[in-house]
Amino acid sequence: MTGEKKKKKRLNRSILLAKKIIIKDGGSPQGIGEPSVYHAVVVIFLEFFAWGLLTTPMLTVLHQTFPHHTFLMNGLIHGVKGLLSFLSAPLIGALSDVWGRKSFLLLTVFFTCAPIPLMKISPWWYFAVISMSGVFAVTFSVIFAYVADITQEHERSTAYGLVSATFAASLVTSPAIGAYLSVAYGDTLVVILATAIALLDICFILVAVPESLPEKMRPASWGAPISWEQADPFASLRKVGQDSTVLLICITVFLSYLPEAGQYSSFFLYLRQVIRFSSETVAAFIAVVGILSILAQTVVLGILMRSIGNKNTILLGLGFQILQLAWYGFGSQPWMMWAAGAVAAMSSITFPAISAIVSRNADPDQQGVVQGMITGIRGLCNGLGPALYGFVFYLFHVELTDTDASEKGGKPNMANPTDESAIIPGPPFLFGACSVLLSLLVALFIPEHTGLGARPGAYKKHSNGAQSHSHSPQGSGAEGKEPLLDDSSV
Predict the structure, then answer these.
(1) Range ranked top by mean pLDDT from 100-114, 279-293, 401-415, 476-490
(2) pTM for this structure?
(3) Major facilitator superfamily (MFS) profile domain: from which residue to which, for each copy (predicted)?
């Protein structure tokens, strides 16, 4: 027993030392100006703009490295990454609740972008590091917690919409720019440019991003040891089942984001191979859908949240997603893809609406944990989705066999997915539509937010919105049973 106590003391000393290194001067804010949503927006934009540039080179390197069963290998690589993200997101979210957001923003962006320069140095190491980077590739988890720290409850849906719209904005031009530079100057220049933008993002976090964790919260946790029960990813996952609202939201996210993640991994290739879009048309399609998504996640989302409420906005977004996937699945003409793309832009309101309903019900010091759970579920989908889509494409004999032909405007060699034997042009999209339909049925049971004082024992410190961050130390037994969200009865 004495040895165990000594080990715990050493562990606590190491933790306090790490805190002093990560949060200098007792947690004084460092950065330019006050923490704002715009800091989060710039971080997200630069990270995903860098990866968007690599859309075309990534496809080429993937096919050259794995010439046989390219879709399946793509699914396997992203499957490992997604599984690691699923396990690590709640842990990183919980640690950011204690140590602050800035240091974990730096950590997640650095490791997410670490594989980029390896694309030209060593493709095998590139794919290996992509898989392992899933441990820290959970930037959205920390970003949403950062936004929750600095916004009031009624502002969060708009703020989350802005962050999600920024993700779409980063993909409006970057794939087209990457494709043009790749054709004109080669893939090496694209990789160098993407690496430079990733370094710029890291420098921006170091120099310009201030810490968002409120001053009142940091002293309360400064002298106390970290609750490993809270930071343990499996403990966080077990809490999903303890709170019915969290459980319903996580199931909704899983069933709706699974097909979306698979679609992201293969849709551009599908447009080129099956619908016969040229590279320029694909770039234009990405840009148009991106612009429409920005409008949907900013203007339309705000109007819907005020007029029909949070839950109905989620249901409407899921309805648009079902229509979009069904249209992609049955559509065989270019105009159908453009029309379905407009519907896809409207379906992008779902995730910011879900993040808002989670955030406004979660305790202030639990924002990182619950957002980490949601982001972790998305990480798992980022692994399973590409694998599922790749496997279904493989079953229906759609295989990537010649990327060079389509890049030069020719027709790629493929296993004839549009011949008479293929009744459905895009079978994975129909599987996705069925999954989102199940998600819609689950989302019907998510309770409306009826007020924070509605039930005894509710978190009354929420009554002041996000400005109230008072802590009261609680016993570990009570902490384990405490629901993550208010109003969890269905």
Answers:
(1) 100-114
(2) 0.67
(3) 36-451
CA 378 – CA 144 distance, rounded (Å): 14
Lowest mean pLDDT among 146-155, 238-247, 328-337, 451-460: 451-460
356-402 per-position pLDDT tens digit: 888 777 776 666 677 667 777 777 787 788 778 878 877 776 554 44
Residues 200-218 pLDDT 10s: 999 999 998 888 776 555 4
What average pLDDT is seen over the chain? 74
For CATH 1.20.1250.20, the residue range(s) in the chain are 32-214, 238-399+426-447
CATH number for region 238-399+426-447: 1.20.1250.20
Specify the residue for token string 């923003």.
105
CATH code linked to domain 32-214: 1.20.1250.20
